[in-house]
Specification:
alpha+beta, globular
Length: about 250
């Protein structure tokens, strides 16, 4: 029985395994040779070029050609998101077969601060692009007191520009945040952080509530790739309801 795609990605490539891959999975030959030739995919940790993505939203981080996308449903006042966000971001850098996508989901218990912080991040991205969006999210999590307590008045966002201020003075960010929050509700996502994993090859998805890390993420990607190998014609699965069982 052949090991799954992601299991093979985690193995050290040797001559014997290379021969097996070339014999049994010819579609991966070009991908493998690209890794061996010293391209950016040949290292586990790499620099990220975000200007290749189309203008957001959605805001993305990682390789534009990644097979898998991890959609992070997050609240900028959520303490669990605050601790999970840097872990997930580093994990994506170490796994170039994935990229990360942000999805606003401000929770009612954290309002109005949650939407206020989301507006700041959204306008940073609107003004300066993907990299600026992620920089704003990082700054917010570093400065917020969480649980709806917001950012202290003494902490001023250092990269505020006239273009960004014009966005903050408009209703544009509210429309985007409300649309994403509504989409999350319709999908049954009502807790943060939640990660939706999408196989961009097959369209299959899995939803993982809670701060899923390390092996849990890899196992989920293994499952997605195994399913797509078994049935390329199957229709994408829709996420089921998510129950928040974390302490309040």
């Amino acid at each position: 029985m052949q090991p799954s795609l992601l299991s093979r990605l985690r193995l050290r490539f040797g001559a014997g395994l290379l021969a097996a891959i070339l014999l049994t999975l010819p579609l991966l030959t070009v991908w493998f040779l690209t890794r061996q030739s010293g391209s950016p995919m040949s290292t586990r940790t790499q620099s990220i070029t975000l200007d290749q993505f189309p203008a957001g939203p959605p805001w993305r981080y990682g390789r534009v050609d990644a097979r898998f996308t991890l959609v992070l449903y997050a609240d900028l006042e959520c303490p669990y998101c605050k601790s999970y966000y840097p872990v997930l971001k580093k994990w994506v850098v170490r796994h170039p077969e994935t990229n990360l996508q942000w999805h606003h989901l401000p929770l009612p218990m954290h309002e109005p601060a949650a939407s206020r912080q989301a507006r700041l991040a959204e306008c940073a991205g609107k003004a300066e692009g993907h990299a600026a969006f992620w920089e704003a999210v990082t700054w917010i999590y570093q400065h917020t007191r969480s649980d709806g307590n917001g950012i202290p008045e003494s902490a001023r966002y250092p990269a505020l520009t006239p273009t960004m201020q014009a966005c903050l003075d408009s209703t544009r960010p509210d429309t985007i945040i409300e649309a994403q929050a509504g989409e999350g509700t319709r999908e049954g996502v009502n807790a943060t952080p939640t990660v939706k994993l999408s196989d961009n090859l097959s369209g299959r998805i899995l939803v993982l509530p809670g701060p899923a890390e390390g092996d849990a993420l890899l196992s989920a990607l293994d499952l997605l790739s195994a399913d797509s190998s078994a049935d390329h014609t199957a229709s994408p699965q829709k996420p089921g309801p998510v129950v928040d069982d974390r302490p309040k």
